[in-house]
Amino acid sequence: MKIVVVIERQKYHLFSAYAPQTGCSEQTRSGTCSMKRQLKCHSCRRHRDQGFVIDAKRVPYGAVATQHQSLICTLKIAPPKPKLAERRGPARIKWWRLKDKEEAVVPSILLPAVTTVDETWKGAAEAITRVALLKLGVTKPGRRKLDKQTWLWTGHVRDEVRGKKKQHHPFLIETTADNWQRYQIAKKEAKKALAFVKAAHYADLNRKLESRDGERYVYRLAKTRNRQTEDIEKFFGINDENGHLLTDRRQTLKRWREYFANISTVEFANPAIPCAPPVHDPVQKITVNETITALKQMKSGRATGPDVLAADMWKSKGWNPTGWLTEFFNQVVAEKKVPESWQQSTTIPTWKKKGSLGDCTCYRPICLLSHSVIIFERIVNSCIRDIVELTTNQCGFVAGCSTIDAIHAARLLLEKHREKRRAVHLAFLDLEIAFDRVPRVVIWYALRQHGVHEELIEWVRILYTSPKGRVQTAAGTSSEFPISVGVHQGSALSPLLFVVVTDVITKDLQRPAPWTLLYSDDVMLASEDKASSSHREQFGVAPIVDKIREARLRWYGHTLRAKNGSVRKIGLNLDVSGKRPGGRAMQRWLDTLHEDLKAVSIHPDQGVKWCQHINRVKWCQHIRKADPAYKRDKR
């Protein structure tokens, strides 16, 4: 057995071998046993690495197997020290300290007057960042957080532990009953003090878990404990286009950038999008109440985007920034322009919990956007939801409906048909890389089809004027690349835009629920007709029945032209003695072939004679069918 371990771009090969036993002569086995008694264990290291070896010993008993003896070698290997540029992620502002230092941070921030979009946002971002860096501090990337449990070492516990040690030393010098009794009393007092501190700490912990922010605290606690069980350094390797593992940081980062840049810039082939009539109705300005509602929907403790400004600052109760934000949002709408930092995003590849860890396609790209643009998106999202009327078949990203509703309806549909012994056929459609590949032109068309005002569409369009992104992984952060197609996964507006698009493109396909169920990009079609030709024609799915028939007939001709002694010819002419039992006959391969021959205008009784009298080329030309083509390919 061989295992390859990659450490610091260097591969270490570990081998495990078994002594000859099974199938060997008695002389060979006895010789192996005698060699085993004289076996000398060696630890092979390079001359320059001899200083790493501290100790090596052979365990005399068979800990692994009867033919093996374990060799234990102790090496002193220092953990790798990554360079500054190779650390995992940039430094972050400690926004979680804002709750305790709110009175010192908020009054020090002076927001500028609203003039132009770029100038105003630049001044506000600099003012907030300067105060946050000074009052809250920043993290040091690359350093592991160690829980040293400093809360356990209080003054009372320290005094009791020192008293126990003072009684322990006299007992070691003179082991008398009095010294032993005094040591036991001091030991019990130290345990009581320690138990009292632990009880108080865990009582406070339970109080935090039952509070309003208890759920967030549980996730933080679980994340911290999970990181303590991880290795010193996260593995950052990924497979290239040919499936070869990349272990170099620069090559790995380049591979991630090329993969996401290809997704974000390459658009699927699609037919010309028809034009929809626009709705030119006036839209009211953004109000303070809409900004307050959007701020309430923002959650605390979320990862920030490229501008490192957290929503916790805008939600702080120490000041009232809603008026300033409302005025700034109206200025953005008036100028039809957003700040440069609102166009930037950071993509975090998140494993889907399925597939290979080395495959880029098994990762979901989660985008970290500026929290301020998410607040603006929530306002736009609320305005659009008041206008659009989605189909009742849609269960994704809709208030009062979830995936459980769709599962419940589908199960009852199957149950009721099973009860009446009626056939029902289901088809499930899943769009590939749906969020990242939806064309922007289709989004504007779908919004117009739902009667959204042209002014609101313009609000959405300015968010996708010139978006740029970068990839952040364990290998580092890549350079920027343009994003010209798709919507962001992690945006507050993207789910609504996507379900609107799905509703429009499946409009002709939909039937009343539960015959058609939608959950975002997942579509379920149900029908009592197995053919469902109307669904296939409406959805543009290519039929493959003719192509499967061609493959069966090609093999049938290949079998008939074979020699009489061949295996396939013997199996075709095989005859089993006996009578067929009563009841309906089972469908045979030859029965299916008879139907295929009728479909190509050949009588089943003449099939054998017809195939044997012509050559292979003419037979293939007669049964050949065109490759299935999608509806969009025929245009």
Q: Describe it for me?
A:
This protein is of the alpha+beta class and 635 residues long. It folds into 4 domains: 2-75, no CATH class; 150-228; 251-539, no CATH class; 545-571 and 587-634, no CATH class. It is 42% helix and 11% strand. The chain contains 22 helices and 14 strands. It has helices at residues 26-37, 102-105, 117-135, 155-173, 177-209, 214-228, 249-265, 288-297, 311-314, 322-335, 371-385, 403-419, 434-437, 440-449, 454-463, 494-505, 533-539, 545-560, 567-572, 589-599, 607-612, 616-623, and strands spanning 2-7, 10-15, 53-58, 71-75, 238-239, 245-246, 344-351, 363-368, 425-430, 468-473, 476-477, 481-482, 516-519, 522-527. Strands 7, 8, 10, 11 and 12 form a 5-stranded mixed β-sheet that branches. A 3-stranded antiparallel β-sheet has the order 9-14-13, with helices on one face. A hairpin with a 2-residue loop joins strand 1 and strand 2 (10-15). The longest helix is centred in the first third of the chain and has 33 residues, at 177-209. It is extended and about 110 Å long. The relative contact order is 0.08. Residues 631-635 have low confidence and may be disordered.
